[in-house]
Design brief:
Layout: H1 4-18, H2 28-33, E1 39-45, H3 51-56, E2 60-67, H4 70-79, E3 86-90, E4 102-108, H5 116-126, E5 127-138, H6 144-165, H7 187-197, E6 202-206, E7 210-216
Parallel strand pairs: 1-2, 1-4, 2-3, 4-5
Antiparallel strand pairs: 5-7, 6-7
């Protein structure tokens, strides 16, 4: 016999499949608030359909956006007007990242797919003096605080789905089409590695199963 909790989880899965919303886009305003009004260059790693890269173009003289998926990158190019200064490149991180420095580097919901230490070192080496690194990542819940934030996120997730979709069933957004997998590392493991590679990095647990990282290179 199926337990009530399993039935609830299946019902929630059906609900969100019919009313998807982009958890990562919710953090785009936070990313922009943590950037200077104008910067020379920005690198967006794991850009997907380019929503954040196009927003960064409003702050940066030029934006380089990379993603390993050529299909979603083709869609990003279609969605980006010619007047918007974004260059898209199919590349894996960290090996395929441009070999130059940037004033801003952003990475949203991608880090858990990549070797953490090597990627953070690549970001560090590509960040210009006085530059800013901003990461929104996923972590594996382990501590009581993690589980409390997960519990609080469930009803908020339902509310956001209803607000974003206004109660209607809508097609799945392009930005949610890329394959995903659960995070392997816990927040303490990520924080320990990040602070070893990026001294002074600030990390914070967030709702919706995310964490944020901010690092300024001095």
């Amino acid at each position: 016999m199926t337990s009530p909790s399993h039935r609830v989880l299946r019902a929630l899965g059906r609900f969100h499949a019919a009313r998807p919303w982009d958890h990562n886009a919710r953090f785009h305003p936070w990313l922009l608030r943590n950037l200077p009004a104008r910067v020379g260059s920005a690198l967006d790693v794991g850009c997907g359909s380019g929503d954040l890269a196009r927003s960064l173009a409003g702050r940066a003289g030029r934006v380089h956006a990379v993603d390993a998926d050529p299909v979603i990158l083709a869609r990003a190019r279609e969605l980006t007007p010619a007047s918007v200064p974004v260059t898209y490149t199919v590349a894996d991180a960290p090996a395929g990242l441009p070999d130059r420095t940037f004033d801003v580097i952003t990475c949203v919901a991608v880090l858990h797919h990549l070797p953490l230490t090597e990627v953070l070192e690549a970001f560090r080496d590509r960040l210009a003096p006085d530059g800013t690194l901003l990461v929104v990542g996923l972590h594996r819940p382990r501590t009581p605080l993690d589980h409390l934030l997960s519990l609080v996120s469930v009803p908020l997730n339902v509310v956001m789905a209803l607000v974003v979709n206004r109660g209607r069933r809508v097609p799945r957004p392009v930005s949610l089409s890329a394959p995903t997998r659960p995070a392997d590392l816990t927040f303490p493991e990520i924080a320990r590695t990040a602070r070893a590679v990026l001294p002074g990095a600030r990390l914070r647990r967030r709702l919706f199963w995310r964490y944020t990282l901010v690092w300024h290179r001095h």
